[in-house]
Amino acid sequence: MSEERSDLFKAIKEKGKTIEAEMSFFDHLDVLRGHLIRAAIAIVVFTILAFSFYDFIFTQIIMAPGQTDFWTYRMMCAATERFNLGAEFCVTKLNFIIINTQLGGQFTLQLNSSLMIGVVLGFPYLLYEIWRFVKPALHENERNSASGFVLWASLLFVTGVLFGYYIISPLSINFLSNYEVSSIINNNIEIDSYFSILATLTIGAGITFELPIIIYILSKLGIMTPAFMRSSRRYATVIILIVAAVVTPTPDLLTMFTVSLPLFLLYEASIYVSAQVERRKKKAELDFYKN
After folding, report:
1. Domain boundaries, given as residue ranges, for the chain
2. What is the model's pTM?
3. pLDDT > 90: what percent of the chain?
4. CA distances (Å), origin 85, targets 74, 80, 82, 96, 110
């Protein structure tokens, strides 16, 4: 009888621990929801601002890479004149006309593009809210080592967005608009298609530039090591060249090199980040065994 009572108390105790753990889990979910709601509010505010100033955003930002007086094209022409790169490198014509074929197409465009601007502007604050959620679970040394997470992740994202907007997007638009199968085909491009390419390449570059941050997290978890990344460098080179060829499907090597160079630098920077994480881990282990 006493054994049954002991088993009953033990079962109640274990059940209590389970309930406590479940409550803790749901409490964390509730905290996470609060952080995400605040980040969503920030994105909505930026979206409303973009919607309010849409005339400037549409003419000076969205449609700018589709005009021959865009900064990138002017720099390409200046480089052509200075270094004799060849007349084809200077962009003087973009062979397409933007059209809209849907009744609500222009309104949808304004909504989608305003949301895209809101996401780009609100991304650093989203990172800040994620950092606030994760920070209490870290040890003091981990907090110190990751103290610049929001700053570096934001800088990398903004750099990637600028690279995608000023380099990848105009090069792709130039090639695709001037590529010609036959002279009898006119390029009447839907505005949704144009904006989709611009948004995908721009935001995609911003996310790609987060590679060192991703490698840092994977290295902290023990999933990624600098030795593995060094041994995989040749495969990474092939993948980077393929990505550069797909993102900017231009036949000239100069354009491919322009796009692939930052990706190579990002990969090497990621190896350095992973090596630093591994060095700190080994130092922490040595300090632990010494004490």
Report:
1. 2-209
2. 0.82
3. 40
4. 14, 5, 8, 25, 39
